[in-house]
Specification:
By secondary structure, the chain is an alpha+beta fold. 19% of the residues lie in helices and 24% in strands. The protein has a domain at 60-192.
Length: 197
């Protein structure tokens, strides 16, 4: 089981490496959808329960819309520590390291996972009734979900938002978007909620 999780993470890292190297975001998005669907349907560490993988049609992802891609600076915000109870891993702690401002969307807190590996974590919960109610992830760099950027700006492309593992199977415990990552507008791109059965 541990090697399966390791291999899953290796493959996710590889998918996002391909995304960052592709100069056309729409092409990168199409590759991301295809490669992620392959993992969800076939990989032993997929969050889709094993008994449903054969019939799983793939993630429901909206068509790419370039108006939802942003390259934005991480703005100063007062440090804040947030502890998230995950059940399996106990309390996972995050530190707010700044915010990003997305035009016509709003402000989102950017978090750093406190722990050995560290990494940016950027979830979003929006008003789109077709997406998972607990929110979606934009960046989770410790697990490979990294769209790029540097010390001055991050690539935040809402087309790549995806639902956390717990949306597929409640056996998973996922940190979800808090108040600083909740916006009143609907984000019509990215992965939509699809019940697995």
């Amino acid at each position: 089981m541990s090697f399966d999780v390791l291999d899953w993470r290796r493959q996710v890292h590889a998918i996002y490496s391909t995304v960052r190297q592709e100069s056309d975001p729409a092409t990168a998005h199409a590759q991301w959808v295809e490669q992620r669907d392959h993992l969800l349907k076939t990989h032993p560490a997929s969050p889709v329960p094993a008994e449903f993988r054969t019939a799983f049609p793939g993630a429901a992802v909206a068509p790419y819309d370039e108006t939802f891609r942003f390259v934005v600076p991480v703005l100063y915000a007062e440090s804040q520590i947030r502890g998230v109870s995950t059940g399996t891993d106990g309390i996972v702690r995050f530190e707010r390291v700044g915010t990003v401002e997305l035009p016509a969307i709003g402000s989102l807190d950017v978090w750093w996972l406190i722990g050995y590996a560290g990494g940016y974590f950027l979830p979003i919960r929006d008003a789109d009734t077709e997406s998972y109610g607990g929110g979606r992830y934009l960046l989770d760099t410790v697990k490979g979900a990294d769209l790029g950027g540097d010390g001055s700006a991050l690539v935040v492309d809402l087309n790549f938002s995806y639902q956390p593992s717990c949306a597929y199977d409640p056996a998973w415990a996922c940190p979800l978007a808090g108040t600083g990552n909740t916006v009143s507008s609907a984000v019509p791109v990215g992965e939509k909620y699809r019940e697995v059965s």
